[in-house]
From TrEMBL:
SMART domains reported in the protein's UniProt record: Flavokinase (SM00904)
GO molecular function, one term: riboflavin kinase activity
Protein name: Riboflavin biosynthesis protein
PANTHER family named among the record's database cross-references: RIBOFLAVIN KINASE, RIBOFLAVIN KINASE/FMN ADENYLYLTRANSFERASE
Pathway(s) per entry: Cofactor biosynthesis; FAD biosynthesis; FAD from FMN: step 1/1; Cofactor biosynthesis; FMN biosynthesis; FMN from riboflavin (ATP route): step 1/1
Keyword Nucleotidyltransferase appears in the UniProt entry: yes
A Pfam family this chain is assigned to: FAD_syn
Keyword entries, A-Z: ATP-binding, FAD, Flavoprotein, FMN, Kinase, Multifunctional enzyme, Nucleotide-binding, Nucleotidyltransferase, Transferase
Family: Belongs to the ribF family.
Protein's organism: Solibacillus palustris
Enzyme Commission no: 2.7.1.26, 2.7.7.2
Residue span, Riboflavin kinase domain: 186-313
NCBIfam families cross-referenced by the UniProt entry: PRK05627.1-3, PRK05627.1-5, ribF
Length: 316
């Protein structure tokens, strides 16, 4: 998969400009089921036309540049993860457009000229609510008008489940609630956090539950505190596990707010310090709480472990 970073104003080499594309365009945070419908439609058109499939995404999030949001923006899939997901979807090329103040000022006509026609895009696919150009003045109906027969346009209708539209906002809310089953339903896969195994306080080992202390990749969103049934990718193999996300109130001063991600990997006994891993989140078992002592904590951890084992048995 080719990854091409673009910034306005930009220049393309002659060689890259020769390639024709069927392009899916959008921010695609999460690459959820709705996004996948857009991307798969673009891939189908690419196959039909005998050209390359491509995705155009933007970095950073437009709201960071444009302002207007009071709440802090977090990414469901930081750019590196998003690119990995595009590759898993067998996309030929990805255009990563640097979203700047100058880019945000482009008129819809300028956007079409510089980022559609000049890229030799033969077909554009986007969701029904995609907007482009300054102040979002361009919509998909305008995209059709601006094509002037030079490229085709496909509009993918709203994708929804039994409740409502599948959206990044719903996924963010579910992540904040720790509702990983809903997140998995909306994404079409488990929510994943890549990281590296680092040294912790090794207290779990003394209690008979050794854990991998995972330092998440910068920019990743960590779900609500609590205990979860998870899978963890270690050395290209997935293992079941039980994970505690939180501040370890039984042992730590509540004033010391240092979040930790600790995974007890089932049926596993290896030293994996320094290994790059991926944690896949499946179900929240309970909230984090403070226990009266070590014995009560050990009893609860064993109960959590059995719940995780039962969950994955039912999942299979």
């Amino acid at each position: 998969m080719d990854v091409i970073h673009l910034k306005y104003p930009y220049q393309l080499s002659q060689e890259s400009n020769k390639q024709a594309y069927s392009l899916a365009v959008g921010f695609f945070d999460g690459v959820h089921k709705g996004h996948q419908a857009v991307i798969n439609a673009a891939k189908a058109t690419a196959k039909e036309l005998g050209i390359k499939s491509a995705v155009m995404t933007f970095d950073p999030h437009p709201s960071i540049v444009l302002g207007g949001r009071n709440e802090k923006v977090f990414y469901i899939t930081p750019l590196a993860q998003k690119l990995d997901t595009f590759e898993e979807l067998s996309i030929d090329a990805v255009f990563v457009v640097n979203f700047t103040s100058d880019f945000a000022k482009l008129t819809p006509e300028q956007f079409v000229q510089y980022f559609i026609l000049d890229l030799n895009v033969q077909h554009v696919t986007a969701g029904f609510d995609y907007s482009f150009g300054a102040f979002g003045k361009g919509n998909m109906d305008m995209m059709k008008q601006l094509a002037h027969g030079q490229f085709g346009v496909t509009i993918v209708e709203k994708q929804q489940d039994v409740e409502e539209k599948i959206s990044s906002t719903r996924i963010r809310n579910a992540l904040q609630d720790g509702d990983m089953e809903q997140v998995r339903t909306l994404l079409g896969r488990a929510f994943e956090v890549p990281g590296i195994v680092v040294h912790g306080d090794k207290r779990g080992r003394t209690m008979g539950f050794p854990t991998a202390n995972v330092q998440a990749m910068e920019g990743c969103y960590i779900p609500a505190t609590g205990v979860y049934a998870v899978k963890i990718l270690v050395q290209n193999k997935w293992y079941n596990g039980v994970c505690n996300v939180g501040y370890k109130p039984t042992f730590k001063n509540p004033e010391e707010k240092q979040l930790s991600i600790e995974v007890h990997i089932l049926n596993f006994d290896k030293n994996i310090y320094g290994e790059e891993v991926v944690v896949g989140w499946y179900k929240r078992i309970r909230s984090e709480r403070k226990f009266s002592g070590i014995d009560a904590l050990i009893e609860q951890i064993e109960h959590d472990k059995q719940q995780a084992i039962h969950y994955f048995e039912q999942l299979c």
